[in-house]
Amino acid sequence: MEVNMQERRKANRRELASKLVVKRLDGGRQEDVEIEIVDVSKSGIGFRCGQLLGIGTVYEAFLRIWTQEVIHAFLEIVRIEKKNEGFHYGAIFIGMPATDASRIEVYDTVETLKQGR
User: Fold this and answer.
1) Environment class of residue 75 by beta-carbon count within 10 Å: exposed (0-12), middle (13-18) or buried (19+)?
2) What is d(CA 49, CA 72) in angstroms, rounded to the nearest whole number?
3) CA-based diameter of the chain, in Å?
4) Are 20 and 37 in contact (CB under 8 A)?
5) 111: part of which helix (H) or strand (E)?
6) What is the CA radius of gyration of the chain?
7) CA-CA distance, 19 to 16, in Å (whole number)?
8) Is the pTM of this model over 0.85?
9) Dihedral sign, CA of 27, 80, 92, 19?
10) Rounded CA gap, 6 and 16, in Å?
11) 57-85: per-residue pLDDT in tens?
């Protein structure tokens, strides 16, 4: 299965070496799913997962950021690509508090300054 959407990113994306656990919120089975984050921005994340998740479905997530703090967030899956090693997803944050989005934005600013942009 491959569902592609036109590029709609509103913010820079950065890689983040972290994992998170998601729980489906629509009344489906409450199964924790471990994923590997590929990139993150203040508006969403890209990640890999071995399990098929539902496009348009909202999941609860606990994101461990570079400061080792955990951000509680809700993700809506907006893109799915099937790859040899599993599935690659794009998700947007739903209702993320401004303080948590700012933490991600600060990380992006620091990384941009390090790269001399």
Assistant:
1) buried
2) 19
3) 47
4) yes
5) helix 98-114
6) 14
7) 9
8) no
9) positive
10) 23
11) 888 888 877 777 788 889 999 999 998 88
Count of C-beta atoms within a 10 Å radius of residue 90:
25
Residue identified by tokens 């967030």 is: 73
Helix (H) or strand (E) holding 53: none
Query: What are the tens digits of pLDDT across the range 36-54?
Result: 888 888 889 999 988 888 8
| Phi/psi of residue 44, nearest 5 degrees | 180, -175
> Can you read off the two tokens belonging to residue 37?
């984050």
CA distance 91 to 69: 20
Say if CB 59 and CB 34 are below 8 A apart: no
DSSP 61: E
